[in-house]
Amino acid sequence: MLARAAPLAPEWKTPMPLDEYRTKRDFSISPEPAGRAPRRRGGRRERIFCVQKHLATQLHYDFRLEHDGVLLSWAVPKGPSLDPATKRLAVRVEDHPIEYADFEGLIPDGYGAGVVMLWDRGTWEPQVDDVAAALARGDLKLRLNGYKLKGSWALVRTKGWGVRGPDDGRSWLLLKHRDEWAGALDITTFAPRSVKSGGGFSDILSAELPDVWTRNPRGRSDPGLVASLTRIVAKVEALERAGAGDAGPARPARSRRARS
């Protein structure tokens, strides 16, 4: 049985502004969207969610929920589990722009350098009357309707479990509730590929790498960029040598033009 959720730290009382997201990135290098000013959703349009598999310093999964014009975001090191008995650490990170929900590609250098795969996407419904109040309590119940993740889930804040340093409200758990979509299947290895392109990390890397040289003003002459790209390629190759479902077997890469 989970311990009572920790009290909310002051900096988490409201969604973090996109200023933090932007200050961490150099958009002359990163292909990530800068995003428009957050706007509250109107009407009864369904809320979107996505999960991006991100091979950066370490492989992890970024779990994102649309709320109040931004994507609330948690980094889940081991990825979502369909087993209700398995509690996954989910570290709250800065809010991301809504446009990020469709992002897949290579971040060649700087913050988050690595490969981002759109691993799952769909819509979500809060199972609470007030999402902001649930976040403040540290107990958000929700329902997902994605390609891979479905059914009833919960995000529960903990007392700093799994996060180094003082308890600052970043430590949460992502939990699957028992329903028809729960089970012992390891969804991260059973379905490792992108829901956008159908490929693995190597496919994304091979499709994006030529564009890095032509789009980035620093080009081939920057030794730091070359070293960063070399490290990214090495990480993808290491995953494939290990036979990890994380990367998935390589497929012949299609050109960006052919996919558009």
Q: What would the keywords be for this entry?
A:
260 residues; alpha+beta; eight-stranded antiparallel beta barrel; 28% strand; globular; disordered C terminus
Strands, helices and their partners?
Blueprint: H1 18-23, E1 47-55, E2 59-67, E3 70-76, E4 88-97, E5 105-107, E6 114-126, H2 131-137, E7 139-146, E8 150-157, E9 171-176, H3 187-190, H4 201-215, H5 223-241, H6 256-259
Please characterize this protein's 3D structure:
- The chain has helices at residues 18-23, 131-137, 187-190, 201-215, 223-241, 256-259, and strands at 47-55, 59-67, 70-76, 88-97, 105-107, 114-126, 139-146, 150-157, 171-176.
- With 260 residues, it is α+β, with helices and mostly antiparallel strands.
- It has one domain.
- Strands 1-2-3-4-9-8-7-6 form an eight-stranded antiparallel beta barrel.
- The protein is globular and about 55 Å long.
- Residues 1-16 and 248-260 have low confidence and may be disordered.
Give a brief rundown of this model:
This protein is α+β, with helices and mostly antiparallel strands and 260 residues long. The protein contains six helices and nine strands; from the N terminus they run αββββββαβββαααα. The protein has an eight-stranded antiparallel barrel.
